[in-house]
Amino acid sequence: MTETENLTFRAFAPDDFERVAVLLGRTWLPEFDEAAQRVASQIELAHYLAQTTWSLLAERGNEVLGAVLLAERGAASDGAGWAELEARLTRAAEKDEALAEAVRTEMDGVREEAELERDYLAGGPLGADAAVKLLIVSPDAKGLGLGGRLFSAALEHLREAGAVGYHLLTDDSCDFGFYEHKGLTQAMRRRSRAYWPGVDPEKDEFHVYVYEQEL
What pTM was computed for the model? Predict the structure, then answer.
């Protein structure tokens, strides 16, 4: 049996929260210490889940190897509980100066991307019907083609749901060449004003982007 035959694909369940948060922190927040990585990744994941209307998770045994989350315009979501969790975790983190700073650092970038998204949507773009809120693949899944499989499944769902197009937010820390290879085009680009770990704002330009595609 091959590694790909051992994979299971299914919708995200609430019990998956901790494992997906660990994957997010390990993959996207390696500069943070263990405590900060755990809290910041939980808050960020809860933020995305509060907007999620459709999800798909890939696992092998008890190991989460990847996930994709969609937010669809007009579709029902069960986001209230996740929004409450985000607020509760944020309040708890604010009691510790180091954790509060880590959360501010991570969520400032998330909020900046959300601001860019609002400006994008104000123009009535072709990608207004849906957004890919999260696409993440474990480094342990390298070579399995999981990113492409999760992404393709999400697009198939959007087509079946009748979406005309979709968009996503990304930044210079990500391999957005993956999206260009998939046929998306850059709709907006803005120099970031937030602090990003590992980026010197005095020397380096760091950008956030909106990519879109017609279905």
Answer: 0.94
For the range 95-102, what are the long-range contacts, defined as Cβ-Cβ under 8 Å and sequence gap of 24 or more?
98/35, 98/36, 99/35, 99/36, 99/39, 102/32, 102/36, 102/37, 102/39, 102/40
DSSP codes joined into one string, 131-183: EEEEEEE-GGGTTS-HHHHHHHHHHHHHHHHT-SEEEEEEETTS-THHHHHTT
- The dihedrals phi and psi of 41, each to the nearest 5 degrees, come to -70, -35
Q: What is the pLDDT of residues 29-75, one digit of tens each?
A: 999 999 999 999 999 999 999 999 999 999 999 899 999 999 999 99
Q: What gap in Å lies between CA 105 and CA 126, rounded to an integer?
A: 31
